[in-house]
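Before going further, learn to read the protein records used in this course. The integers have meaning only within a learned vocabulary of local backbone shapes. The record below shows the convention in full.
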Amino acid sequence: MNINLKGTNITLTPAITEYTNKRLEKISKIINDDVSAQCDVELAKTTAHHNKGDIFRAEVHIVGAGKNLYASSEKDDLYAAIDTVQDEILRELKVVKGKRISYIRRSGARVKDMVKGLWPWGKKIKV
């Protein structure tokens, strides 16, 4: 998975970059290290003149591997915003995975019902 970090109205220090990459490791494990997946992360300070309130924003956009997911979070601390956006994107990934597994199970059940209807298992067939 390719990760692009972007800082808007904020300087990306090595500590922030390392913390963000550490938090995104869980996401790359769920995507199964797909090289075609693109993860764009934007860390921003929404305003320059406020000192209190939700002034830090973290956004994650994942494209590829059959997925197009987006999550954002605004908090008063940059690290808290990164943690919250990680939880949101993991939740979205789990929902997508659950829908895919449910679709596979329903398809298998339909095929099984079709086979049961075509082949009378309890009756012997004369050849």
In short: The mean pLDDT is 85.
